[in-house]
């Protein structure tokens, strides 16, 4: 719906501002986003509107968040600390030994091996490569990771690279992902699963030329969390 | 860190280190900015629990998208506020019905970064307020309601007791006048 008395330039400005303010309907907003992809100068208008209005937000009286908020952020990004977890399979193992060898018959084989981890790397709508989902099956004991692409496509002329991050060490590349089929990767021996994170980044074709991520991290998931 | 770096450089530095997966920098960034961002999400959602849950989402996005910060051409606080506001409005709109994903605004790389953006980011509250003051009161109230509280055209029309199309036309002309004033 155009205003007859706005010039075409004013109309563009008004649309960009309405988009920034969240005043568009779902349909209008997706059309606007498509236009913005085709015409990056629209993105500039959007950015300028956000910058013009930001001082209002900055002037709000700060409100301190409860300490639990930071803990939740850390937990969701980096996993819960070891002590917070239940007894798990190690406790079962200890029980089996305490009860003598015979007790082993009560456990089927999978209970005696560390469980594999089912994880998903999902990019947010906000991500440069939205709508990407890659399921990970991490078999710690076999030092294998199997990827299963569920949704999304790689960015045009770019590759998506898979990384493992252990504690505070720099990310190690596992390789470039094929987003059309499952792949199996060798992973390092995992000593403490609470310190392991998997991540994907947007890289030039063939993967990062430097051995560390050069493009944005698209998604990350802790091994346990 | 250098004592003499300004707050903006300090935040930019922290975001750059977050992009390199530096958790200490992430925590420092959180400490420096979370109270401001909670004020933003709280103002929109008007519910402490929801505002804090949204704040968590915001910082997860910050961690996951810090590497893109430089390419979008925002000042650090504007970038953080935009993420917070978009996440909160997304949640607000999802309360009764689904809404647009307005985060997409931050995924488009700006073709000619910085200079203009820095100038715009530097535009201070005084100038913005002076320009709001040039507008008829009902229009500046509508603009503030839309920005700060995430109100829809329908909310704004109901509050001002005018037809929706009238509100739409007020607000759009208000926006054009506001931009002209700020670009003077």
What would you say this structure looks like, in words?
The complex is a heterodimer of chains A (225) and B (184). Chain A is of the alpha+beta class. Chain A is 32% helix and 24% strand. Chain A has helices at 8-21, 26-38, 40-58, 67-78, 88-98, 109-112, and strands at 117-122, 133-139, 144-151, 158-166, 172-176, 183-186, 196-204, 217-222. A 4-stranded antiparallel β-sheet of chain A has the order 1-2-3-6, with no helix packed on it. Chain A is globular, with a radius of gyration of 24 Å. Mean pLDDT of chain A is 79; it is low at 82-113. Chain B contains 10 helices and no strands. Helices cover 73% and strands 0% of the residues of chain B. Chains A and B meet through helix 1, helix 2, helix 3, helix 4 and strand 8 of A and helix 2, helix 3, helix 5, helix 6 and helix 8 of B.
Helix content of chain B: over 70%
Number of strands of chain A: 8
Q: Strand portion of chain B, in percent? A: under 5%
Q: Please describe the biggest sheet of chain B, giving its number of strands, its sense, and whether it closes into a barrel.
A: none
Q: Count of helices of chain A?
A: 6
Please give the alpha-carbon distance between the first and last residues of chain A: 48 Å
Oligomeric assembly = heterodimer
Q: What is the overall silhouette of chain B?
A: globular
The class by helix and strand makeup of chain B works out as: mainly alpha
Q: In whole angstroms, how far apart are the ends of chain B?
A: 38 Å
Low-confidence stretches of chain B: 97-122
Q: How do the SSEs of chain A run, as a string of H and E?
A: HHHHHHEEEEEEEE
Helix and strand succession of chain B? Answer: HHHHHHHHHH
Strand content of chain A: 15-25%
Uncertain segments of chain A of ≥5 residues (pLDDT<50)? Answer: 82-113
Judging from the principal axes of the Cα atoms, what is the shape of chain A? globular
What pair of chains forms the biggest interface? Answer: A-B, 70 and 80 residues
| Helix coverage percent of chain A | 25-40%
Compute the number of strand runs of chain B: 0
Mind telling me the C-alpha Rg of chain A? 24 Å
Mean pLDDT of chain B: 83
